[in-house]
Amino acid sequence: MEKVDKRRRREGKTDYSRRIKLLKSESSRIVFRKTNRYLIAQYVKSKEAKDNIEFGFDSKTLLNYGWPEKAAGSLKSVPAAYLLGMLIGKKITDKKNIPIIDVGMLKTVHKSRIYAFIKGLIDSGIKIKSKDGIFPDEKRIRGEHLKTKIPFEEIKSKVTK
């Protein structure tokens, strides 16, 4: 009789071997997820295989910081990922304890939203080891490639307060 994988593994939602390693490390982690319309970031602490979400933000929160309503369709863009990283990085009080970045089953492509999010975390003061050349260009982070221009510097100044 052939063994059948667990349902969440078959659906491509959970990598159980990676999750066990994360839980055994007992480190806090920052979870980054992408939906069809938004980006989600959460600060999670695990104890005895139980996840406790300390706080979290989604990119919809950027509308409160001055993101233009007419550009709401671009809330999962590279600038939104960077600003979301800055936002969650400013909220983390324990800057000495290096969290693990948990991207789940997302593919990690250099210069993508995931790395823009990590750059936002680094720029907010969290010490994360990284290589050179994996982050998006400054023009992409500022949103110069978008059709609808966003007031990036204005939003960034509000997020960093």
UniProtKB/TrEMBL annotation:
Q: What Gene3D superfamilies would the database entry show?
A: 3.30.420.100
* Any GO molecular function: structural constituent of ribosome
Question: Biological process GO annotation list?
Answer: ribosomal large subunit assembly; translation
* CC annotations in GO: cytosolic large ribosomal subunit
Please provide an example of a Pfam family that matches this protein in its UniProt record.
Answer: Ribosomal_L5e
Sorted UniProt keywords: Ribonucleoprotein, Ribosomal protein, RNA-binding, rRNA-binding
* Stored NCBIfam families: PRK08569.1 (NF006342)
Q: What does this protein do?
A: This is one of the proteins that bind and probably mediate the attachment of the 5S RNA into the large ribosomal subunit, where it forms part of the central protuberance.
| Family the UniProt entry places it in | Belongs to the universal ribosomal protein uL18 family.
Listed under subunit, the entry gives: Part of the 50S ribosomal subunit. Contacts the 5S and 23S rRNAs.
Name recorded for this polypeptide? Large ribosomal subunit protein uL18
The scientific name of the source species is uncultured archaeon Rifle_16ft_4_minimus_1461
